[in-house]
Amino acid sequence: MLACAVAFAWETVSAPIMATTVEVTGEHAADAAIVFGVFREVEATANEWREDAALAAVNRGAGGPPVPVPEDLAGLLRRGLEMGEVTEGAFDVSWAA
């Protein structure tokens, strides 16, 4: 029988993103930068309270002509509409609109 002992030195790194604290625990603290980068991309596009976010532009344009949005936000909104259908309205992507 072969025995193998591997010791991991887990590290937890946190950052304030999207009005909350995001924590990442892993072997390499540097990997947290990748995770934080993804959260910051979402925040830059889909944060309704950031005036420069694409979602904020959609909300400002409500009731008016269509507003161009990045493809990732369009996909997110499409998925939100699908989830609304699947949950028969329990999930509402427009809850704060």
Structure commentary:
The chain is built from three helices and two strands; from the N terminus they run ββααα. With 97 residues, it is of the alpha+beta class. A two-stranded antiparallel sheet has the order 1-2. The chain is elongated, with a radius of gyration of 19 Å. 2% of the residues are buried.
SSE arrangement:
Elements: E1 11-17, E2 20-26, H1 32-46, H2 54-60, H3 71-86
Antiparallel strand pairs: 1-2
Tell me the quaternary state.
single chain
Instruction: Using the CA coordinates, give the radius of gyration.
Output: 19 Å
Helix fraction by DSSP (H/I, runs of at least 4) = 25-40%
Run of helices and strands = EEHHH
Distance between the termini: 62 Å
Q: Sheet bearing the most strands, described?
A: 2 strands, antiparallel
How would you sum up this structure in a few lines?
This protein is an alpha+beta fold. It has helices at residues 32-46, 54-60, 71-86, and strands at residues 11-17, 20-26.
